[in-house]
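Complex record, two chains
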Amino acid sequence: MAINQNDSELERKLKHYRMSSLEYKKACELVGHPLQGIEWSLFSALWSEHCSYKSSKVHLRKFYNKNARVLEAEGENAGVVDLGGGERVVFKMESHNHPSFIEPYQGAATGVGGILRDIFTMGARPIALADYLCFGDPKAPRMESLVDGVVRGIGGYGNCVGVPTVTGQTHFHSSYNNNILVNAMAVGLLRPGEKVALSKAKGPGYWVVYVGAKTGKDGVHGASMASESFDADSEKKKPNVQIGDPYFEKLLIESCLEVIQKDLVVSIQDMGAAGLTSSSFEMASKGQVGMELHLDKVPLRDSSITPEEILLSESQERMLMVVEPHQFKAVEAVFAHWGLDAAVIGTVLEERKVRLIWKSEVLVELDPDLLVEQAPRYERPFVPWKWKNQLSPKLEKNNLSALKYRWGTPDQASRHFITRQYDQRVGLKTVQDCEFPVALMRLPDSERGLGMAVGCRPEVMRLDAKLGAFDSIAYPALQMAAQGIETIAITDCLNFGNPEKIEIMSEFVASVEAISEMAQALDAPVVSGNVSFYNETLGQNITSTPATGLVGLRPTISNLKSSTFLTPMAWAGSKSPLSQDRSSESQEFIEDVYLISLPMIQHSDLWEDASPVWSGEWDTSRVVEFIRNTRTLALRSEVGGLRVVGSQGIMTSLMRMSLDGMGFLGEDLSRWETQPGLFYQLIVTGHRLSTVIKESYSSSLQVEVLKLGVTQKEFFTVGQRSIAVSELKLTFEKAWGKHFENLA
Amino acid sequence: MSPTNIRSDHQQKNPSNRSGNSSAKTSRSKVGVIRFPGTNCDRDVFEALEMVGLNPEWLWHLDRFEAKKYAALILPGGFSFGDYLRAGALASRSPVMDSVREAAQYGMPILGICNGFQILCESHLLPGALVKNASLRFQDQWVNLRLVNSHRSFGATLQPGASLALPIAHGEGRFYTPLDELKRLWDAQQIWFTYSENPNGSLQDIAGVMNKEKNVVALMPHPERAMQAWMGSEDGRIIFETLLG
């Protein structure tokens, strides 16, 4: 086809709309003429990486994403998983990296707002949030203010809407100096009898209804911004960042849940990336119908806004619904009760065309599939994975450096500065909050526990991306198992650099394969997720970081296991001062401390070694059996506590277990200070557990069990060395302020 | 500070499974729970009241109601009207507050929790004001409280000196009032609770106060979040339970 536009004019437009010339050609062929007017904006937005997943989709299709529990997965706003007994969990994880780096408070806040809308748009009340944050070196420029802003943003939004933030992780590494990661997971609950709402439009003649905040100019082109690498000019992108209002979101949660549960809506979707454009085209495409939209009927905050800006605005807290005309009055009444307007802005068409109208002029008429289903799919070049930094078995003895235990470093410093800014209890379901390695929520109808964890250890990703991706499921699943929780489903947030670079794409493909393999072996499907590419600034890519979110079930919320050494008071059963007199004066609370090891992967110090190495063979089925057996052990009543050993080894883990005030007494553990690290190890406490442990692990795993010592009051003692537990705690608590002087 | 490592097997069946015994619920146990747009602890308070066998009923910010229908009123926490202007300032001007003022005059027991406390101060039903925490940040943590003066309805059986473990979750919970007023509050036995360890810079560790007539009362910590052992503490129950008389 002849594309008769002036070359330099075309080039200017391609640059402005962030499209490649190939994509432009494809778009022109699909519509049958050179792109004109508003078509440019539509293709630019919906074909952006952010909306179309054009570089990742061919790989994401490989995910293990179905089993009998999965009610909704790919294609909906979030995954829906059956918990049995009518209870269902709806959850998803999403990134808001680029906006958070430009404007940390609003970037993080709107990230939380967006992921919550994905949950309640499906009819589920959000019951919990989790965050996964990666910051640069604490001394890097702006880092203190980025940490401050992001944490305030997450808290500011989550606290106000009344959804508790119950777990999370924060990592620090220089690879994130110019591109921080802000990922959030939201978890919602559908109680027995409650309805799931879907996004596919249907019913020609039904009305298209706009609800929520009015549309302004904020966030126009946000989606395509998030699909680009940063350069020195990223500061100029501030106007592309959206502004959130959690108060409005709270009203929207209550009103949307009410209309969904009263069965007043046919379908519903939030206006997220690319705003009204993506929600309308996607709803129509999924429902195989068309839509006529009158843009001049969209409630506006700013009368000078153009139709193009209306289409692309990413103003927050807005939803699009399809409603049967006779139900509209009832819908309007619900929204009016909550002080919100509902505006009819169009109708569903049988003909598969989205027709956009501005003051009775048809601006454009397009088959929604051209923008959604026909979006480009790229098979970006990659190479099959070869293990990195793996030593041959012969070399391993001499070349694996010993682990140094670390205390008071940014990764071994208290996170109270962060977690105390989050409301962790609103909603009355929190059993285990941010103080624990994984969260546990009480399911109100069955009184079972719903476990939640986030995962991905960037230090393991830097060692080997595929090993790190296996570990991004295995490690949190093991942490869940140590609390007696069976992982049943997974979401992910794949944060990578520039996919057009072969080494990044190779890490991406290897990660998808590893996550899928683990998911299948655990029978925990990947039911939702998000990809964030172009986490690259001035040519420097971040550590590839496939963050994961796991949910799981625990049969009850009683007989919980501690992740620290039990204090006499905790042993006695309650911390309430009213019942302190119940605490035992006997020595029963002294427990034995054991180490359980799975001999599989050994690694050198991942923190100080300039080029860390590892040895051994990854074996997914062995890891999964170890996880399952650990859960069996964790549910035994004889066991008092369990903790998974982190990448910094046993000493650090023992010290972490002493932070509640009960210490440790062990023989000389210098052996552990001269040895490399091991995936995977557990510390277990209780009385005379040797038999219980043996019974729990299948003999083919050949786990090694060792008694390390016993718990004791007040002191942490290893051989000749001893330190007061209170001092350990003080160093741990104060370390944060040492690294972040203005955030203490 | 967080009550970690709860090992209690003590599990109480959640009585909110609205089964039967509704005949036992008389107007004596009927408690009005006042919701504003942005209130977010409303459902929690509702559930907590049901757990102890009370009979909660919703009141919306636009409602006017007849005080005699209720044994007590509760203003739960949250972010009424998004905390715009000042926490509690807009809610205090809502129509429902006219009825709350009448009920207060009539002597009805009224409890404000967190944002409810802020609203009652903004409504001049309670003395003082709640300003930004000394940390200038939102704070979520467990605190120990000490009862200074017993209240005749909420937690009525607690004696002075009694200690409770409850969680706080607020950004503006620092109690403030001019010093001469403060002295008057102590003298008139209007201080309800103090913090054992001051988390937010409240004047003289004050966590809860009463009005002169001792029927309107409020605290910053959340008793509804400490109703069952699995929540970390059961110390909040007594605040509601004593309404049963």
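Note: Chain B has one domain: 3-244.
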